[in-house]
């Protein structure tokens, strides 16, 4: 076709070749063998049974197949589609919306460095750059030993503990360049450090199964909960007798 001045205009049809949001990875399984399918169907039946409308089980089922492959594959998407009687387009539309669903093979530990505004100002950018050099990988790349996948995160929703690093979605608060290096070294050596908040770390595939609703065997010693930094505003309000204004008609 031609433009308004008669010059040729070239239109690329379809996604650009560098588009990261496509579930197309060389070597990814296209379908599961019978023994894998049978095993996953047992878990899927348990998950689906929790919902009055079975299509509501799509999010946990996506975590389930991610726990099988470490990322979403054509085989995993096909499995979810068949179990829930959804079209491939319906499954892919949901899967491509959420960043917790991975588009490529993921290491044992997904290390996410927050580089959003507050964490960046407090040192997140420096931490991310240091880890890229230390690990020898770029964003969304995995170390040669398959242990660590490094990723920058837009926000970990923990600004009160900035800068924050998450490993398999567990928090490591108030990080520095040096502590972040020590953290990834502990992951690669097989002696992972304990999160600042939350349960002990497990491998990414097991984390995905836990998010799918499968049993979490990690010890619960009362970790987590709101810390002093999170509750600082509430404490000041209480000390000064401050209360939220009443809504309409005293509500």
Give your account of this protein's structure.
This protein is α+β, with helices and mostly antiparallel strands. Among the domains are: 64 residues, NADH-quinone oxidoreductase subunit E (Arc Repressor Mutant, subunit A), CATH 1.10.10; 94 residues, Glutaredoxin, CATH 3.40.30. It is 39% helix and 8% strand. It has 8 helices and 5 strands, in the order ααααβαββββααα. Strands 2-3-1-4-5 form a 5-stranded mixed sheet. Helix 2 runs antiparallel to helix 7, helix 3 crosses helix 4 and helix 5 packs across helix 6. It is globular. The mean pLDDT is 90.
Question: What is the compact description of this entry?
Answer:
Residues 228-237 have a biased composition (Low complexity). With 251 residues, the protein is of the alpha+beta class.
Name the beta content range. 5-15%
Terminal CA distance reads 62 Å
CATH fold descriptor of the domain at 109-202: Glutaredoxin
Sheet with most strands: 5 strands, mixed
Biggest sheet: strands side by side, in what order?
2-3-1-4-5
DSSP strand count: 5
What Rg, in angstroms, do the CA atoms define? 22 Å
CATH superfamily of the domain at 109-202: Glutaredoxin
Give the rounded overall mean pLDDT.
Answer: 90
Overall geometry comes to globular
Which blocks of ≥5 consecutive residues have pLDDT under 50?
A: none
User: Level of helix content?
Assistant: 25-40%
């Amino acid at each position: 076709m031609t433009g308004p001045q008669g010059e040729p205009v070239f239109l690329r049809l379809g996604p650009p070749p560098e588009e990261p949001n496509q579930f197309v990875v060389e070597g990814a399984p296209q379908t599961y063998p019978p023994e894998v399918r049978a095993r996953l169907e047992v878990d899927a039946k348990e998950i689906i049974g929790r919902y009055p409308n079975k299509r509501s089980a799509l999010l946990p089922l996506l975590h389930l197949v991610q726990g099988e492959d470490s990322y979403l594959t054509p085989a995993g998407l096909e499995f979810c589609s068949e179990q829930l009687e959804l079209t491939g387009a319906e499954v892919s539309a949901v899967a491509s919306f959420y960043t917790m669903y991975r588009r490529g093979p993921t290491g044992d530990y997904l290390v996410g460095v927050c580089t959003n505004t507050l964490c960046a100002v407090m040192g997140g950018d420096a931490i991310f750059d240091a880890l890229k050099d230390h690990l020898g990988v770029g964003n969304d790349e995995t170390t040669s030993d398959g242990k660590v996948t490094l990723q920058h995160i837009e926000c970990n929703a923990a600004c009160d503990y900035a800068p924050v690093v998450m490993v398999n979605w567990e928090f490591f608060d108030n990080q520095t360049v040096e502590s972040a290096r020590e953290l990834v070294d502990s992951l690669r050596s097989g002696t992972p450090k304990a999160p600042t908040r939350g349960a002990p770390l497990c491998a990414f595939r097991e984390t995905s199964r836990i998010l799918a609703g499968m049993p979490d065997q990690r010890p619960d010693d009362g970790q987590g909960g709101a810390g002093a930094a999170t509750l600082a505003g509430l404490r000041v309000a209480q000390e000064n007798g401050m209360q939220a204004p009443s809504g309409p008609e005293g509500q």
